[in-house]
Amino acid sequence: AQSVTQLDSHVSVSEGTPVLLRCNYSSSYSPSLFWYVQHPNKGLQLLLKYTSAATLVKGINGFEAEFKKSETSFHLTKPSAHMSDAAEYFCVVSDLGGSSNTGKLIFGQGTTLQVKP
Amino acid sequence: DGGITQSPKYLFRKEGQNVTLSCEQNLNHDAMYWYRQDPGQGLRLIYYSQIVNDFQKGDIAEGYSVSREKKESFPLTVTSAQKNPTAFYLCASMVATMNTEAFFGQGTRLTVV
């Protein structure tokens, strides 16, 4: 079975400082991994996705994530936080490519990013 | 513009009442999904459909029902059997092949009054 663990429920940074949101995954096959962002009372927006083409994935708004198979991690980073980055972030794994192959998404518990002025 | 439209944005339900949440997509996606979000938790899958006239239960299907009569539409009914329906409901669609992502609607917040 697949699973995702987000290691921090809440992260607080100052504007202009780096952001690190941590995610570990468990999968019996090569996973499809995603990071989504959710602003209050809104739907989810895709930040980036890992497709096995490259281990360092660049996304929107300056975010990037590195896939490390040996550590089963897919941490999200940004060099310099902006006030507009304050939101909920979800690390997600899909069952596509596995035996069930339904497109079902398995979500981490989410990390709330607070950006202080 | 292509996308997923959920309506209404806010919905209030009385005890014992059934309500239906709408989800429409014009992305020509075969697969559609309903997720429930509770505060401080990730999303949990309620129902999904990979093709018209077919759907399967997800992890928390009890107290919910769906239909998929058209490719574009996947309405969710929250029945009176759902004991704790207050939550944020999100609809998603995707092509459901390797390396593709899901697209989400803006959500419906359901509150029991």
The quaternary organization reads as heterodimer
Q: Measured on Cα atoms, how large is the radius of gyration of chain B?
A: 13 Å
Distance between the termini of chain A: 41 Å
Ranges of chain B where pLDDT stays below 50 over 5 or more residues in a row are none
Give helix and strand order of chain A, one letter per element, not per position.
Answer: EEEEEEEEEEEE
Cα separation of the termini of chain B = 35 Å
The total count of helices of chain B amounts to: 0
Largest interface by Cβ-Cβ < 8 Å:
A-B, 27 and 32 residues
Instruction: Report the order of strands and helices of chain B.
Output: EEEEEEEEEEE
Q: Helical percent range of chain B? A: under 10%
Number of helices of chain A: 0
Helix content of chain A: under 10%
Helix and strand topology:
The complex is a heterodimer of chains A (117) and B (113).
Chain A lengths: L2 E4 L3 E5 L4 E3 L1 E4 L5 E7 L5 E7 L5 E3 L5 E5 L4 E6 L8 E8 L10 E3 L3 E6 L1
Parallel strand pairs in A: 2-12
Antiparallel strand pairs in A: 1-4, 3-9, 5-6, 5-10, 7-8, 8-9, 10-11, 10-12
Chain B lengths: L3 E4 L2 E4 L5 E7 L5 E7 L5 E9 L2 E4 L6 E3 L9 E3 L8 E8 L8 E2 L3 E5 L1
Parallel strand pairs in B: 2-11
Antiparallel strand pairs in B: 1-3, 3-8, 4-5, 4-9, 5-6, 7-8, 9-10, 9-11
